[in-house]
Amino acid sequence: MSDLVSDAFHTIQKEASRRGLAPKSQQITRAASKQERNLNSPADAGSKASGGRRKGIPTGPDGRRLPKKDNLESVNAVLQREISRRGWGREIAGGWVQNNWEELVGAQVAAHTKVEMFKGEALFISCDSTAWATNLRMMQRNILAAIARQVGQGIITELKIFGPKTPSWRHGPLHVKGRGPRDTYG
Question: How far apart are CA 40 and CA 62, in angstroms?
C-alpha cells in the first residue's frame, strides 16, 4: 500500500514539469549546469554567437555576485546640500562648538567655563570667576584659531567673555525700586 501524500506529491511534480514549472531545487541545479556548460563551451558566453546576453545574476571573475549599481545619494550628500541650500552652515558650526567645547579648550578650562550662545559671529562664554574670565581673554587668540581649524574661517570671529553673574537684589513681586543696597558693606 502506498502513501497518499507521497502519491499526491509525485503527481504534482509530474504536472509541474509537464508545464515547465520546476521546484526551486531543480531550478537551481539546472541553472548551475547551464552556467557550467557556458563556461566549458569554446564560444564566449557574452558573444553574439551564444545569444548576446546572459540571463541571471551577474557575477565577477571569482563567482561572487557583483554589487548592485545604485544611483542613490548618500545621506551625508543630501544633508550637506540641504544645509548649504538653506544657509544653515553657520548655525550648525556654532552648535558643534557648543557641543564640543571641552575638546576645543581642554577639560580644565571647560570645567570653569560654559558656552552660553552663538549669535552672529560672536560666541558668548561665561566663567565661574573673574580670574578664569581674565585667563580666557588672554587665550582668546588660541581658542579662535582652534575653532577656525575645526569649523572653518570666518564663522566665529569674536569671543564675548563674561565673569560670574552679580547677585540680584530684586527678590519677589513687592521689591522696592531703586539702586539697591549701597552702604551695607562699610
Answer: 16
Q: Are 156 and 144 in contact (CB under 8 A)?
A: yes
Which residue is it, cell 558693606? 185
What pLDDT digit, counting tens, does each position of 128-172 carry?
999 999 999 999 999 999 999 988 888 889 999 999 887 776 777
Fold annotation for 87-162: GMP Synthetase; Chain A, domain 3 (3.30.300)
If one counts every other C-beta atom within 10 angstroms of the C-beta of residue 109, the result is 18
- 76 bridge partner residues: none
* Domains in the chain: boundaries: 10-42, 87-162
Q: How far is 81 from 89, CA to CA, in rounded Å?
A: 10
Which letter does DSSP use for residue 123 in this model?
E
pTM score, whole prediction: 0.51
CA distances from 7 to 10, 12, 54, 145 (A): 5, 9, 38, 83
